[in-house]
Write a structure and sequence with these properties.
Number of strands: 8
Strand content: 5-15%
Shape: globular
Structural class: alpha/beta
Helix content: 40-55%
Low-confidence stretches: 21-37, 268-276
Distance between the termini: 68 Å
Order of helices and strands: HEEHHEHEEEHEHHHE
Largest sheet: 5 strands, mixed
């Protein structure tokens, strides 16, 4: 079949247009396939990691905001599962933020013995310290710091990235632990602790310092000798730490999705509803 030049150009134009539309359509289909079935709201569950359930809000704060109790609890759970399990002879307790707060607000710490860990053989206790004083305000307070209690030495080291903001709260936590254990503890407020440069990185400093003290001071040194617990000169890159924690969470989320897809029944029903209500789980 032959066409005049004008008709041939018209036919070619239609062919190119249809090809272009196919490419555009394919691109939009690809984008739609990659888009989540539904956008998560801040109150939606994002990841269940052993005993911690992270919400979307918790994950969002890790990007550039003040860390929630749950974000720090996840980090402690992660350190316990991924690091402390490699040192079975260690006797270190990472007390969750909620437990630290409860301990500080309870008139008689002895009433908490049944809900707190057994400290009989414990060498060190890490406590995230919050400056919230109102038990009725969830996620209250405006500043985090870290208290490390050495039961071996009878010392409580306080690392405050806005020194001396949480001195009173950390001193109170030390007093409560002392009452609970029935032994004296000397409070050491370390004014040489690394300092943050903004108002939102305090929780990240707690996470970074907790891991550093575990790996560089307690787990890899001879505790029978003298261990320098100062963090003077320690550089804390909060931005990189935020990205690292987020990367860890996203990795667990993807792994949880893979496990769920492998275990899903081919006869399962209401898959989209299950996906929206149940977060990926690692246990």
């Amino acid at each position: 079949m032959s066409f005049p030049n004008q008709a041939r150009l018209h036919y070619l134009g239609i062919l190119l247009l249809s090809t272009g539309l196919c490419v555009v359509a394919s691109w939009w289909i690809f984008k739609l396939m990659r888009r989540p079935l539904s956008k998560l709201s801040p109150d939606d569950a994002y990841l269940s990691y052993f005993d911690v359930r992270l919400m979307k809000e918790d994950v969002d704060t890790l990007k550039n905001d003040w860390l929630t109790d749950n974000s720090i609890a996840f980090w402690e759970e992660y350190l316990e599962r991924e690091i402390l399990t490699q040192y079975p002879k260690s006797h270190i307790v990472l007390l969750r933020p909620s437990m630290s707060f409860m301990l500080m607000q309870t008139p008689d710490p002895a009433t908490l013995r049944d809900v707190l860990p057994d400290f009989t053989h414990t060498s060190h206790i890490f406590l995230p310290i919050n400056d919230c004083h109102n038990v009725e305000i969830p996620e209250g307070g405006s500043h985090w710091s870290l208290l490390l209690v050495s039961l071996i030495d009878g010392l409580a080291f306080h690392y405050d990235s806005l020194f001396p903001s949480n001195r009173q709260e950390a001193g109170l936590a030390t007093s409560k632990i002392s009452q609970l254990l029935g032994r004296g503890l000397r409070f050491v407020d370390l004014e040489t602790s690394p300092q943050q440069e903004n108002s939102s990185d305090c929780g990240v400093f707690v996470c970074v310092q907790m891991r550093h003290l575990l790996l560089k001071r307690l787990l890899t040194t001879d505790l029978k000798g003298k261990v320098d617990m100062s963090l003077q000169g320690k550089n804390v890159d909060a931005s990189s730490a935020r990205k690292e924690i987020l990367k860890i969470i996203e990795g667990f989320r993807r792994e949880g999705e893979r496990r769920r897809s492998r275990s899903a029944s081919p006869y399962g029903q209401t898959k989209s509803k299950t996906r929206s209500k149940t977060p990926p789980r690692i246990e």
